[in-house]
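Friendly challenge for the regulars: who can give me the structure tokens for this chain first? No prize, just bragging rights.
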Amino acid sequence: MKLRLAQEKDYMQLAEMKWLHCEEDDADYNTTDTVGIDKNEFIGDFISFLNKHKEYKIFVAADNDIVVSSMFVYLLPKTPKPKRKQDYIAYLTNVYTLKDYRNKGIGTELIAYIKEYLSNENCELIFVWPSEKSVDWYSRNGFRQENEIFECSLEN
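First reply, four minutes later:
Bragging rights claimed.
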């Protein structure tokens, strides 16, 4: 298993994984994100998104040329402050591992790789909005519910 940053050649696999992730969420949470949506059109839109938003660091675990797990990280720069060494905070999103590769420690290896990478980038912390079924996994990997985040939805 190779842990690395995604490359453009991985984009189709990442789009397929996102589709699978949404299908699973539809089944697990009784949502309808994929209902009535053309899969090929979505995949094209997702790949366009990846090409447009290069600011995401996409980390993958690859078994030969097959991407089996992925995690997206968006680095948010912090404004300068005296005596502070951290330059960023990181938002972790779009975490997904293919079914046949789950419960084998791959996600745990990938998050450890990401934590080391971000530490070397002077990142202060990683935050994530976990699903109900992923809270235990995040807890086992060093995430804690420390802060209350206030949000203001801008959706109508």
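The chain has one domain: 2-140. The first helix runs from residue 11 to 29. Your move, everyone else.
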